[in-house]
Structure formats: C-alpha cells, structure tokens
Design a protein that fits this description.
This protein has two domains: 4-43 and 202-268 and 360-414, FAD/NAD(P)-binding domain (3-Layer(bba) Sandwich), CATH 3.50.50.60; 58-98 and 134-195 and 270-357, D-Amino Acid Oxidase, Chain A, domain 2 (2-Layer Sandwich). Helices cover 31% and strands 27% of the residues. It contains eleven helices and 19 strands. The strands form three sheets. Strands 4, 5, 6, 7, 13, 14, 15, 16 and 17 form a nine-stranded mixed sheet that branches. Helix 1 (14-25) runs parallel beside helix 11 (383-399) and helix 4 crosses helix 11. The radius of gyration is 21 Å and the shape is globular.
Length: 415
C-alpha cells in the first residue's frame, strides 16, 4: 500500500479497529493511525462486559437530582466535580432536558438495538476469526444487598423485555447456590443470560492482528497535527510521520473527538466521563460470571488469571490524576459483596475517559458539513459492547450498502 488509502481511520481503540476490520472485509484499503498503542487508552482498562442489559441510558428521570446531591460526595458512583466549565454546563443542560420518559425510551430503544446486534456480531467474529480473547457467554448478574433496590430494578424489567432483553430473578438462596464467591445474606440478583464477557486487551490485540492479516496498515505513535481539505472536501491529515491521504476519513477518536475535530468547525456534544478500574491476580474464589454490585455500580469480572473491579462516572474534564478516593470506593464496595474482594497481587490501577454524548448514543455516519469525514465516536460506557455493530454500520454507510441497523438514531446530523 502506498501513502494513500481508500480509508484512513483515526484512532486505534476498539471502535477504530472494528471499523478497519469491516472496511477491509468489504474490500477497502485501510490505514489506521494511533498516537499511542492500539487498544492502549480507553479500551484498555474496562471490564470487558458485552451487555445488552445496559440498554437504559444514563439520562433517566431523576438522575440529575441524584447527581446534584452527590456533588459533595467525592466517592459517589456518579460525580460531577464542581468547577467553572462552560462546555460541561452546556452539556449538562442538554442532558437534563432528556431526563424524561419519552427521550429515555427513545434512547433505550436505539441503544438496545445496537447492543443486541453487536453482541451477536462479536460472538460470530470471535468464533469465525478464532480470536483468542477469553470470550464467554456467561450472562451477567445485577447483585443486591438491599431488597428495596432490587425491587426498584425489577419494576423496570418489563421495559427491557419489550426490547427483547431476557432476565431471570434470583432470590438470596438461589444466588448463594449459583455464585459461591458472594458473601452470605445478600438480597438476590437479576440475571441477564444474553450478556457476555471478554478480555478487552486481548480482544483489541486480536482485532489488530486480523486487520494486519487482511492487508491493513496500522501505524502507532503517530500524532495528527492538522487536516487538509481541497474544494471543501477533507482529503487527508498532516501527522508526525508526514501527510496521510485517503478518499474517506473515519474519526474514531473516542473522548478526544471534541478537541481534535474542533479545527474543522465541529462542536460535538461529548464530555469525557472518567472511569476507574483495579486489576488483581485471580483470587482462589472468583465469581463464575461477571456482575454489577448494583447499589455501588461496581462491575466485577474475573478471567483465568485475574480479577477486575471497575466503576464510577466522574465528570472532571480531562483531569489526568488517579483519584485515590474513587479507587478506594471501588475496593470498599467489593468488600461488602465478595468473599475474596481482591487477589494476592494488585497488578494495575487505571483510569480512562469515556466519550459521553448527551443522549447516550454514539455518532456514526457522515458529517454533512465536512464531506469526506465520517464519525464513529460517542459510545459512552458501551464502546466494547457496541464495537462490532459500529464498525459494520460505518462500513455499510460508506460503501453504500443496506445498513445493518437503523442509522437514523445515531446520525451525527441529529445534533
């Protein structure tokens, strides 16, 4: 391949890699540039759950009032750090306007379609391309200490069922029998059999392997320094390795999308939502299936050689500090549910930003104001789970094929 490709993909996280994979399968030549290492940023430290059960959007009735109360609680699951930030204030106003039943249901319906389609695509991709990434169709448990919290969530299972998302309620005794890693005396769980898990670092590494095998070029350590247009059309970028040209450019830049695309005149309604995780060597008694410790919104996943605890949504801009208060809250929450809440060796403490759009839906498709530019960003906390459908949808749209899912709810033009 010479310096020009059919498609230039900006960003080597799970979304960018998925876009590159499906474009190559469609016969396009692809070059992907990543300023760090592929899969090394937002895709690296998440819990690796593939969860159609997470279709309900963050913008729900009452959530903003709860967030305001939590502003003075730095270890709360959802935390907005008080500070003067006009961009965040504008984002919160648009977010608040969507905290109603009508908009919640519209986002949940579209998000559920994306997650369900991507869940099936990922399993097929892992099987057919033989990706060694620890994929397991184990389902997922929402686990509860408080019976009242469990009953409140049970009331919403009808909405999920209407989206085609199955569930099963376990009382305390049934939960104890199915999951011996949990402490006794818990209220119960809601089991989502359609969910799954994988190792996110291995999945992105395997996607990168397949992209290269299919003829794609991946360039790591490349910084994009500018954009080049001709006759109003985007035709390439300037980079630390020189110009990179393409007929079409897909921006899969995750939480950095608003900053990096601003020179093109784009004002994307995306805020960086900071999340944390702690990874341990595997304890002797680890959970059989991934779970969410529901009262604290802490996700727990275990693999053959490790245990990961992940949680929190923190709106603090592009703050690069590792907040000990947030990490301690994750560890403390696990102690209230798990017999062995940590493994023998702490391997990593991590944070990463998620690209949070105001309606909790990604932006996938062409940018009308900038011909030649396509977006695949704004996936919030669901980047891993929506990765495959995002890559296939951008390929369908770019190649003029019938789209795999309805593209209207995720069109960049809606903003």
């Amino acid at each position: 391949m010479d310096e020009r490709a059919d498609v230039l993909v900006l960003g080597g996280g799970v979304i960018g890699l998925s876009c590159a994979y499906y474009l190559l399968r469609a016969g396009r030549s692809v070059r992907l540039v990543e300023r760090g290492h592929v899969g090394g940023s937002t895709s690296h430290g998440n819990c690796g759950t593939i969860t159609p059960s997470h279709a309900p959007p963050l913008a729900a009735p009452g959530v903003l009032r709860k967030a305001m109360r939590w502003m003075l609680t730095p270890d709360a699951p959802l935390y907005i750090r008080p500070r003067p930030d006009p961009a965040l204030a504008a984002w919160l106003m648009r977010f608040a306007a969507r905290c109603n039943r009508r908009d919640w249901w519209a986002s949940a319906r579209a998000k559920g379609e994306l997650l369900t389609a991507s869940r099936a695509l990922i399993e097929g991709l892992v099987r057919d391309d033989r990706l060694d990434c620890g994929f397991e169709a184990t389902g997922l448990n929402y686990v509860y200490r408080d019976p009242r919290a469990m009953e409140a969530d049970r009331a919403g299972l009808g909405d999920l069922a209407a989206l085609g998302i199955a569930s099963r309620v376990l009382d305390g005794a049934a939960l104890a029998a199915e999951e011996p890693a949990l402490l006794p005396g818990l209220a119960g769980a809601i089991h989502f059999p359609g969910d799954a898990q994988l190792r996110p670092d291995r999945y992105t590494a395997e996607l990168a392997r397949r992209v290269r095998e299919l003829g794609g070029i991946i360039e790591e350590g490349v910084t994009v320094t500018g954009f080049r247009t001709e006759a109003g059309r985007l035709v390439g970028v300037d980079s630390s390795l020189g110009p990179r040209d393409a007929r079409d450019i897909v921006a899969a830049l995750g939480p950095w999308s608003p900053l990096l695309l601003q020179p093109l005149g784009l004002r994307l309604p995306i805020q960086p939502g900071k999340g944390y995780s702690m990874t341990w060597s595997r304890p002797a008694l680890a959970p059989r299936a991934p779970m969410v410790l529901r009262e604290h919104s802490v996700c727990v996943t275990s693999w053959a050689d490790g245990l990961r605890l992940g949680s929190t949504m923190e709106f603090s801009g592009y703050d690069t500090t590792l907040n000990r208060t947030r990490l301690d809250a994750i560890a403390r929450a696990a102690q209230g549910y798990l017999r062995e809440p940590a493994g023998p060796v702490l391997r990593e403490e991590w944070f990463g930003w998620r690209p949070m759009s105001v309606d909790d839906l990604p932006l996938i498709g062409p940018v009308a104001s900038t011909p030649g530019l396509w977006l695949a960003t704004g996936h919030g906390m669901m980047g891993m789970g929506m990765s495959a459908v995002s890559g296939l949808l951008i390929t369908d749209l770019l190649c003029g094929r019938s789209p795999c899912v309805n593209p209207v709810p995720v069109s960049p033009g809606r903003f």
